[in-house]
Write a structure and sequence with these properties.
With 193 residues, the protein is α/β, with parallel strands linked by helices. Helix content is 41%, strand content 18%. It has a five-stranded mixed beta sheet with strand order 5-4-3-6-7, with helices on both faces.
Length: 193
């Protein structure tokens, strides 16, 4: 009898936590539901970001695999696509060839693709040897998830992609895989031609 009571209490607690998580991550409207699926951000409604001002975005500092320090402000005059990923994340790895292709095709038009890894420098370096790509990889084991949360990744999951217009306006966020077609459409609408 006591085991059933403990089991029932545990299930009730799990349901309660799940309800709270769903409530915290709920879309405010149908348009917000589309946004959470990855459409263009609706600037008229509050976002889940806590620190997504242009200054906060562009002041972020990272060190790449070669040991060079970068500040995101280096690319403030470009369309910047930031993809948060990890070497252990299967959907993340599936996106990488497409992201490399976007960097190759649109770099001369002002696109900068950056992969910020929630992984160790060693893991990212070993991964880069196996799957070379044409965009900047930044290992940021300690801070990647927190930075992604500041940019709207409320759940801290991967992959998470964000696109920032020149000047710092966030125009796209997506938790989960992105497709080449939707990225090309977004880039074509916002790239310098």
């Amino acid at each position: 009898m006591q085991v059933k009571l403990i089991l029932a209490a545990g299930v009730s607690l799990m349901v309660c936590f799940a309800t709270i998580a769903v409530w915290l991550d709920r879309p405010a409207s149908r348009k917000a539901a589309a946004d959470s699926a990855g459409s263009v951000v609706d600037a008229s409604r509050p976002q889940a970001t806590t620190d997504a001002t242009a200054g906060a975005i562009y002041s972020a500092r990272f060190t790449d695999l070669e040991g060079r320090e970068h500040i995101l402000g280096e690319w403030q005059h470009k369309l910047v696509l930031i993809n948060f990923w990890a070497t252990w994340c299967a959907p993340c790895k599936e996106e990488m060839p497409m992201l490399a292709k976007l960097q190759e095709n649109y770099a001369s038009h002002g696109l900068k693709v950056i992969g910020i890894a929630a992984d160790s420098r060693l893991n990212v370096a070993n991964f880069a040897k196996l799957l070379p790509n044409s965009y900047l990889l930044i290992p940021e084991e300690a801070g990647a998830i927190e930075f992604s949360r500041r940019l709207g990744n409320r759940l801290g999951l991967l992959p998470f992609t964000i696109v920032i217009k020149p000047g710092g306006e966030v125009i796209f966020t997506r938790l989960g895989r992105v497709t080449e077609a939707e990225m090309i459409e977004l880039i074509d609408k916002n790239i310098q031609k």
